[in-house]
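Example record for the data management plan.
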Amino acid sequence: MNNQKIIAALLSLSAVAFGLPSAFAAEDSATPIAQAGVAATDAAINGKVSAVLMSDPSLTGSKIRVNTTHRVVSLQGTVEAEAAGLRAIELASSVEGVERVVSVLSLATR
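Corresponding structural encoding:
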């Protein structure tokens, strides 16, 4: 390995260690630090969506599980009426940071 490659590797590792973006890393490779940032963002989005859904009176009686991966929110469970399902999708979509909502909601059997 020549000196330039060694220096580039050391700079890249130093940047990652200090939480800085590495100019030498491939753009599509996710570092553990970047992955942790995505997980933290997903967790924050998940919490906000869950809070918004729980606070809406039109969703009383609904059993909705929220899962967020890479800013894509998945809604699973049951709702009392079609309008409640549409409302849940609308509310989840309105949360800052949500890129897309995938709904696997179904109507509760009575």
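Summary line stored alongside the record: Helices lie at 3-17, 32-55, 82-94.
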